[in-house]
Amino acid sequence: MHTNSNEPAPVENPQLIKLNIDMMSERRTKIIWFLFLAVVIFFYILTLAVPPAISTAVASYRDCPVDGPVNNDECLAFNVNSHPTFIGVLSGVNEYNNFFLLEMQPVRNESGGGYKTTDIGVSLSFNFTLNYVTSKSHVVQEVLLPEKNHLINFKCTRGQRLCESKMILYLPRIQRDAYQVIIKITNTDEVSWMVQDIQFRFIYMYQKYAQYLLILKYMFFFVSVIALLLYYKFLKKINPSDRIFEQKMLLVLSIALVLFNDPFFAVTLLYPSFLSALFSTVFVTSFYCLLLLFWLCQFERICTENDKKGTKTMKPWKVVLILVVWFTLVISYTILSYTYQQDPATNYESEDEGTYQIFKVFSILLVMIVVGVLVNYYVNFCRVWNTRIGRHKNFFFFSTYFIFCTFLFIFTGSLTVYNNDGNRVLIVISVTNMYIFFLQYFYGPSIEGIKGS
Predict the structure, then answer these.
(1) Beta strands 85-91 and 178-185: pairing type?
(2) Which of 70, 143, 324, 405 is 20 to 30 A away from residue 59, measured at CA?
């Protein structure tokens, strides 16, 4: 770190009221850092208990007789020639399973069809029926999708037994406790020389994962509401003329944090729709964009405005830049959420279709500009380190870890509404909330500050 011994020592402005961050003795600072590290380690350890997000049952005709459920432990396929009709029952499900998806995957015949030398295309023709059945006796109660013929093409790579897998059924909401699927292959004579078996995968959200998401979200939602009310209560104890930029901006961020924790998340998860996903996306991206704007202003402020209440760092170009970042993030994550609703197997890393890819790349480039500006402020702050007041130095040190985490969340696509990585969801929500909670304490007025206001 570059310092200049000739620079004058920082002098506290007597007009600034004392905040908790100003009253941090060496002992208190160590306690807070220890508490911070303990909380971070606790949440990382907690990831070991996160339930899996997706349940997959790979079923076969032999494992799924007419009166039997899907066998979740076996990975077999029915023989095209021996048993051209597949009957599978998925039972014991409810709205917490969120969705029901069925995939079909042909298995190549090793003894024919140019298995080792040729890439082939397989066209499977089949009749498909979906019924609602009783969970125990599997008696048909209602025909949800009557028998209909389908034709789907699959690509098969040479030297690989498993061809590509394709979705043949997707229910965005589970409204029954048991479903029966009947699939009859109608062109076995044409494909038997190429295809020996066909696998069917039932994919749905693990009930405990949905419950985990709801508990996690609403726990932090209620804590953030309490933290907001307490912060506002203490903020009211000082005169409005004594409030500084950080306190005003933090009040906005505290309100945005409540929305980030999403009071409508249960609707988004259990009753998915484009509108609910849009609202959730706006809540998440708005919070992080406000946080980016706060950092752009605050890090310039601690470099150039050492002891002033107000700020001149809220410049138009920063607002415009963050608005464009917000727009591109909302568009890209809304497209991703909508795609997920059409197919929950959507993969952020592999999703490269048209409009989404354009907005994704554009948003990353804009966020990189924000990173560059913040790095410049970091360098400038190190140059004037000896002249900065204590609260700015504490903010500089404390925010570094959270800034790193935030940009990591953005660049890895962790802000999407539908995230099937439970560990990532826990870390994103906990780290984000923890940062604002600590700032609320730091910039809250101390007892001395309240008396002096």
Answers:
(1) antiparallel
(2) 143
Among 49-53, 82-86, 135-139, 429-433, which is the least confidently predicted range?
A: 82-86
Q: Are the CB atoms for 155 and 119 separated by under 8 Å?
A: yes
Please tell me whether residue 184 adopts helix, strand or coil conformation. strand
Those residues whose C-beta lies under 8 Å from the C-beta of residue 396, and which sit 6 or more positions away, are 302, 381, 388
DSSP string, 338-390: HHHHH-TT--TTT---HHHHHHHHHHHHHHHHHHHHHHHHHHHHHHTGGGS-H
What local confidence, expressed as pLDDT, does residue 81 receive?
46
For β-strands 178-185 and 100-108, DSSP reports them as unpaired
CA 392, CA 307: separation in Å to the nearest integer? 9
What is the token pair recorded at 140? Answer: 């048909």
- Backbone angles phi and psi of 224, in degrees to 5: -70, -35
- Are 141 and 134 contacting, i.e. CB atoms less than 8 angstroms apart? yes
**Residues found in the chain:** 453
Mean pLDDT of 338-353: 59
Instruction: Give Cα separations from 425 to 43, 106, 257 (angstroms).
Output: 11, 34, 15
Rg of the chain over CA atoms, in angstroms? 28
Contact 262, 224 (CB under 8 A): no
Q: Which residue has the tokens 């790349």?
A: 361
116: how many CB neighbours lie within 10 A of its CB?
A: 9
Which string of DSSP letters, residue by residue, matches 102-153?
A: EEEEEEE-TTSSSTTT--EEEEEEEEEEEEEE-TTT--EEEEEEEEEEEEEE
CA distance 347 to 325: 22
Structure tokens at 14: 């007597």
Based on the number of CB atoms within 10 Å of its own CB, is 425 exposed (0-12), middle (13-18) or buried (19 or more)?
buried
Beta bridge partners, 264, equal none
Count the helix, strand and coil residues of the chain and give each as a percent rounded to the nearest 5: 50, 20, 30
Spatial distance between the Cα atoms of 36 and 426, rounded to a whole number of angstroms: 16
Question: Which residue type occupies 420?
Answer: N
Strands (E) across 134-239 are located at 140-156, 166-171, 178-185, 195-205
Residues 6+ apart with CB under 8 A from 208: 51
Over residues 271-295, the pLDDT tens digits come to 878 888 888 889 999 999 999 999 9
Q: What percent of the chain has pLDDT over 70?
A: 85
Residue matched to tokens 């789907």: 152
Backbone angles phi, psi at 360, to 5 degrees: -60, -50
